[in-house]
Specification:
The complex is a heterodimer of chains A (about 190) and B (about 475).
Chain A: E1 2-10, H1 13-25, E2 29-34, H2 42-45, H3 53-79, H4 92-119, E3 125-127, E4 139-144, H5 151-160, E5 165-172, E6 175-177
Antiparallel strand pairs in A: 1-4, 1-5, 2-4, 3-6
Helix pairs in contact in A: 3-4
Chain B: H1 21-33, H2 38-64, H3 79-103, H4 109-134, H5 161-194, H6 198-207, H7 215-248, H8 260-286, H9 295-325, H10 329-340, H11 347-359, H12 367-370, H13 373-399, H14 416-439, H15 445-455, H16 457-468, H17 471-479
Helix pairs in contact in B: 1-15, 2-14, 3-4, 3-7, 3-8, 3-13, 4-5, 4-14, 5-6, 5-7, 7-8, 8-9, 8-13, 9-11, 11-13
Classes of the chains: A alpha+beta (about 190), B mainly alpha (about 475).
């Protein structure tokens, strides 16, 4: 969906945190803050809830354990009870290594898959980048405009709060399949009157 | 980690020089954007030449059979399994640095974890080749996987340590790869956003999965990294434990000991750190990264080497003592006659191992030597040679004289194709490493940026003022505003 955003870049976390607080207090809706590294506490400052990715990891892990123990037990006791040197058909201690490995494997693969799914990330995915400096040295605060937003006022508000670069962008907020070597724009361009 | 941007002056800075966020990006990414140097081409060519020789050696083994190797009646495992254990052990240091040191909140890991983890992945790839081609009929390799088949269905033996190994090594490889790559995504995005050429934009665009740096994504990224580290920590211990069980669960004198799991894990970390040292000492020099991989980093790794080296030495002596104390004739014979006896056919290997792994790392108790780059490099090579000897001693000296003395005449020495296979994995390893060092950020950019303001040299210098500050004032000015 195409939306209008006011983008302000900050160069210092020390300036960013009070700015986030002030912008939120003033009632503006922060679309996102793009940072070059994880800034601790920023998620709380933005009012984001804790991620439950680790819970998914636990669920995947338990699934792995169950598949391993269940599978090996079924194979050794029901499907094909093979006599291996007279050893028991249900040797639980001997199942532990494989059960552990499968727990870890499913948990890790599942979590990474979920992570990519939630973040809408995969090879070939393209998104609108508000500032190329967001992966280098700037903290880019993106504020979504509504009908009531006064852009000029908001820009000077950001400037007063320490933003270095401020601009207004119309952008697609979702993702699409695209290539970064092509200058693709899925958002509307200004019509030129002849 | 809190937002508190203060770290004691007593701690050595982890990033030297006057840096800011942009400078870090410049320093680490510009080698990727520059043309490859002649030195790089020469290195890559040598690696590829070795790789081709290795491929030919393996080709001979596959076409003419396992007889191309000098394995004998009693020595069924020779260089191949020695090399397997050696490579997989090397891999362990990468996971230790990236996972265990993450859980322990060791800041210095940020400078070395990316390269060390890449090393892990390449080492595990190399390790995997040996058991696969040792199968002989490698095209039947899929028999190891448990799946409903038309052979009965006949399932693999889940009681077997060798079967556990299949699961352990493949899980280890997958998890390491995922852990490494998810951490690499933000840094690849940095390369993408700086890219000038069409190819680079496309390549890093695809490789970075469309990473933006959104706060929510970072939050998930951190959660993912923490859980993966938590999973990888027991995993890495389990992998070498299971590798050691390949030996320990057998009834061969010299293998049948309960000390093997911890002893193998310590040895793995020991050899792995030595390999990380030798790779990074060259990498930091060639890519001019001395300010990120500092002498402090090298010293920290040397401390791990002296610790794990001492554990390994302790294990050697314990093993020897228990062989005697157990009163088991066969066990004691294997140690006394096949190893400790310097005039026995493989006595040289035992003493080579003892010297390289037990005696020489003790020199690292000296701080001066720990901080000497050239000496460290020399020691790292020595330790890797020693750890290769260790696996050779464990495998060959335990089985070249079996229970039947008429088989004893056989002296095992490798054929050219066995050696070629080993050299080939070196070729594979270094081909991968050269490509990685040229086209990927060797240092975790985002992680370095995250510690810059606590551990950067220029920021630490400013902390002198904070140290003089009244604690109440310090809290109000430096801590409270952040939250």
């Amino acid at each position: 969906m195409i939306k209008k955003f006011v983008v302000g870049s900050f160069e210092d976390e020390k300036v960013l945190f009070p700015a986030v607080k002030n912008v939120r207090r003033a009632g503006y809706k922060i679309h996102d803050v793009y940072t070059p590294f994880p800034v601790h506490g920023l998620d709380h400052a933005l009012g984001l809830r804790e991620t439950s990715l680790h819970t998914m990891g636990f669920i995947y892990g338990i699934t792995g354990t169950s598949i391993a123990i269940g599978g090996m037990s079924w194979i050794f006791t029901t499907d094909w009870p093979l006599n291996i040197g007279g050893k028991p058909h249900f040797p639980l201690p001997a199942f532990i290594p494989i059960a552990f490995e499968l727990t870890v494997l499913l948990s890790a693969v599942g979590m990474v898959w979920t992570y990519c799914w939630l973040n809408k990330m995969m090879p070939g995915v393209k998104k609108h980048h508000f500032s190329p400096r967001a992966t280098d040295d700037a903290f880019v605060m993106v504020i979504e405009c509504t009908d009531k937003t006064n852009e000029v006022e908001l820009q000077s508000f950001l400037q007063n709060n320490g933003a270095i670069e401020i601009n207004v962008q119309e952008a697609e907020e979702g993702w699409w399949f695209g290539r970064y070597d092509k200058d693709q724009k899925l958002y509307r361009t200004e019509e030129v009157s002849v | 980690m809190s937002l508190l941007k203060y770290e004691s002056q007593l701690r050595e800075p982890l990033v030297d020089g006057d840096k800011n966020y942009h400078q870090i990006t410049e320093d680490i990414i510009s080698p990727i954007e520059a043309k490859p140097t002649r030195l790089w081409w020469i290195g890559l060519s040598i690696a590829i030449a070795l790789l081709i020789f290795g491929v030919y050696s393996v080709y001979r083994e596959v076409v003419y059979g396992i007889g191309q190797w000098n394995l004998t009646r009693t020595v069924g495992w020779g260089w191949d399994i020695t090399n397997f254990v050696w490579w997989i052990g090397i891999g362990h240091a990468g996971t230790l640095i990236s996972a265990i040191l993450l859980l322990f909140r060791q800041g210095w890991r940020t400078g070395v974890n990316r390269a060390a983890e890449a090393m892990t992945i390449f080492a595990v790839i190399c390790a995997g080749q040996f058991p696969i081609f040792h199968m002989g009929r490698v095209w039947m390799g899929f028999f190891v996987f448990p799946y409903p088949n038309s052979r009965g269905p006949l399932w693999p033996n889940f009681n077997s340590a060798l079967m556990w190994d299949v699961f352990a090594v493949s899980t280890y490889f997958t998890v390491s790869l995922l852990f490494w790559y998810t951490g690499l995504l933000p840094d690849l995005a940095t390369v993408r956003d700086r890219a000038k050429t069409k190819f680079r934009k496309m390549f890093y665009g695809v490789a970075s999965f469309g990473w933006t740096g959104s706060t929510k994504h970072w939050q998930r990224q951190e959660s993912l990294a923490l859980v993966l580290a938590g999973l990888a920590t027991p995993l890495v211990l389990s992998v070498h434990t299971i590798v050691s069980m390949d030996f320990a669960t057998s009834v061969i004198p010299g293998w049948h000991t309960t000390i093997f799991p911890p002893y193998f894990v310590a040895g793995a970390i020991f050899s792995g750190f030595a390999m990380v040292q030798s790779l990074l000492i060259i990498t930091r020099k060639v890519l001019h990264l001395e300010e990120y991989i500092t002498i402090g980093h090298i010293e920290a790794m040397n401390k791990v080497i002296v610790l794990t080296g001492s554990i390994v030495g302790c294990a050697y002596l314990t093993e020897l003592f228990v062989a005697w104390y157990s009163g088991n004739t066969y066990e004691w014979w294997a140690f006394r006659e096949n190893r400790v006896n310097i005039f026995s056919p493989y006595g040289w290997a035992y003493y080579g191992m003892m010297f390289c792994n037990v005696v020489s790392p003790q020199l690292f108790w000296s701080k001066k030597l720990r901080r000497n780059v050239l000496f460290t490099f020399f020691m790292a090579v020595l330790v890797n040679v020693g750890m290769w000897f260790e696996r050779f001693v464990i495998i060959v000296t335990s089985i070249y004289r079996d229970y039947l003395p008429s088989s004893w005449t056989t002296y095992y020495s490798p054929s050219i194709w066995e050696i070629g296979f080993y050299l080939g994995t070196f070729g594979l390893f270094f081909t991968c490493y050269f490509l990685f060092a040229k086209y990927f950020p060797v240092i975790a950019l985002s992680e370095i940026k995250a510690i810059l303001k606590t551990s950067g040299e220029n920021y630490k210098a400013k902390m002198t003022d904070q140290e003089k500050m009244d604690s109440e004032k310090f809290y109000i000015e430096e801590v409270e505003h952040a939250h």
